[in-house]
Amino acid sequence: MKLFIKPGAGSFAPHIVLHELGIAHEIEAVDTKAGKTASGADFSALNPKGYIPALLLDDGTLLTEGAAILQYLADLKPELQLAPANGTLPRYQMQAWLNFIGTELHKYVTPFFLPGASDDWKSVARSCLERRCVYINQELQNRPYLMGEQFTVADAYLFNVLNWFRFLKIDLAQWPNVAAFHARVAERPSVAAALTAEGLKR
User: What is the pLDDT of residue 201?
Assistant: First the structure.
């Protein structure tokens, strides 16, 4: 399978998970502005949405949207418990975390990377991010990961988004449990492998 990426962007979480799983895969960078892959292919012809992540399966099927890709990958090796079993309450709780991260964190980072985004918009977004981090800090008070003792794909997604906070000049230290979580996940070999593969420094 092939994961289309933009180094350090929203494709980083599924890239971490691929290394957690130890599944053979390719990655190919995408210039989303130009709509071209590193090999010169027309990315919009492959994925009309025009953004990453996108996972090309061995049978030619393209899977898009980070939360869907993360769960698909986790279910390839259920014995690793990167997602609770389908149909169980913990699975829906993990899906709630994925939705929360996507709509209440990822969404509010977007204006900081959009040319022309107003200062007012950024101010509102920053305030929302800080309020959500207060909540996450409370949730992580007595557990190492979002779902408890077990690292899941939701943790990979949260780590991915928290990585961007340094570009926003938001210091995670004001939420000690969030900062500890970020440091904990950063030490996973899968993170180091993904960073290396994407040409990013630790």
Answer: 75
